Amino acid sequence: MKIDVTKAWSEKKLQHERQLVACQFSPCGEFVVAAGMDSSLHRWTLATDEHAPLAGHATWIGDVAFHPDKSRVYSVDYRGGLFCWDYRTAKLLWKKESAHDGWARKVAVSPNGKFVATGGNDRVLRVWSDGGELVGEWPGHDGYIFSIAFHPDSKTVVSGDQVGVARQWELPGGKEVRQFDLSVLHTRKDNFLAHVGGVRSMAFDATGSTLACGGMTNAKSNSFCPGDPLVVLLDAATGESKTQLKPSQKADGPINSLRFLPTGQLAGVGEGASGASLAFWKLDQQTPIHTIKMGSGYEVDLHPDELRLLVCRFEANGRGGNGRHATPETYISNDGVIEIYNLYEKPAQT
Predict the structure, then answer these.
(1) Which of 10, 257, 278, 285 could make an SS bond with 292 (beta carbons 3.0 to 4.6 A apart)?
(2) Which residues, other chains included, contact 335 with Cβ-Cβ below 8 Å and sequence gap of 6+?
């Protein structure tokens, strides 16, 4: 089957009553695991759509990442916890309830499976062995850590922060190799009460020569934080900016997730108060070669067969009004949706 993103079509939707902010295909290709604004991971079997929860967190879950061994998945939560699960049996293998001081936003696993990196609101990147032993903790960021990406050779890891700086660290020692200037993704005007933007997403291409960084630029305020979605392509060896990519669909929020495809094209999903899109770019063209309009998206991931792509996104369900619920436990704002796309032309029906 030949990839043609301009012919991409939706195969199925998986729905959950809470918003989902993280979602990935398992390396074995059999499952989807998602997490978000409740205290369980959610596993769907792709062949049957059967749903099973992995319960154990005490609060909302910020991110998930699979180990390449086809059995383990890691998750981090709003209280700073790092959990490791056997996703096939739904068994909790171990947990570090205080891996971070406060909200742990991101977790990533190195391609060789030796390292697990976590980061969040305490501004410290921590690297763990795959079994949960602390390898190192590296401060230096001046803002929350929003994104983490391992180089394909597993020798370095990059962490991106709230104020538009990405730092590359050697593994396992933690020597800082370089900083990437992504200040274009950060805005802090004199009348702003807080930083707006940051390096919200990162992805290396297959060769490790290009680092794509997503977020937004030109924030207009810090009330609803509207801005212009933007992807910056960097030379990973020098840190120099190559070019900038923009979605063609009108949106006013950041690019939240990026994935390179085997064709060398880049897929990205963003958010916006008035809508957003799944966009596909050729790296030498600023505007997408194809766009699929949708509500706010939080993660995009590629199936191991390299022919399917999922998007974890928001879907309004009429429960979004403020003040209509007595307690936080009964306030269920909107649905989480996982939509799976086939990246080739839809076969003709016979």
Answers:
(1) 278
(2) 15, 16, 17, 18, 19, 314, 315, 316, 317
Q: Let me know the angle formed at the C-alpha of 41 by 196 and 295, rounded to the nearest 5 degrees.
A: 45
User: Looking at residue 332, what is its pLDDT?
Assistant: 62
Q: Tell me the two tokens of residue 80.
A: 């700073």
- The predicted model scores a pTM of 0.94
Q: How far apart are CA 176 and CA 251, in angstroms?
A: 35
Q: Indicate the SS3 state at residue 284.
A: coil
Report the run of H or E that residue 108 belongs to, with start and end. strand 104-109
Of 38, 75, 72, 39, the closest CA to residue 58 belongs to 39
What whole-number distance in Å separates Cα of residue 330 and Cα of residue 332? Answer: 6
Beta strands in 162-240 (DSSP E): 165-170, 176-181, 186-187, 196-197, 201-204, 210-217, 228-235
Per-chain mean pLDDT for the chain: 93
Contact 72, 57 (CB under 8 A): no
pLDDT at 185: 96
At 237-264, the pLDDT tens digits run: 999 999 999 999 888 899 999 999 999 9
End-to-end CA distance of the chain: 19
Tokens representing residue 204 in the block: 């290396």
Contact 49, 14 (CB under 8 A): yes
Residues in the chain, pLDDT under 70 = 223-224, 318-333, 350
Q: What is the pLDDT of residue 323?
A: 46
Dist. CA 5–CA 229, nearest whole Å: 21
Please give the Cα distance from 312 to 34 (Å, whole number). 8
Position 96 scores a pLDDT of 97
Nearest residue to 229 via CA among 213, 259, 251: 251
C-alpha distances (whole Å) from 240 to each of 75, 325, 331, 350 are 33, 50, 46, 52
Helix (H, G, I), strand (E, B) or coil at 183: helix
Q: Is 132 exposed, middle or buried (0-12, 13-18, 19+ CB in 10 A)?
A: middle
**What is the C-alpha separation between 335 and 320, in angstroms, rounded?**
10
Q: Which domains does the chain have, with CATH numbers?
A: 5-319+331-342 (2.130.10.10)
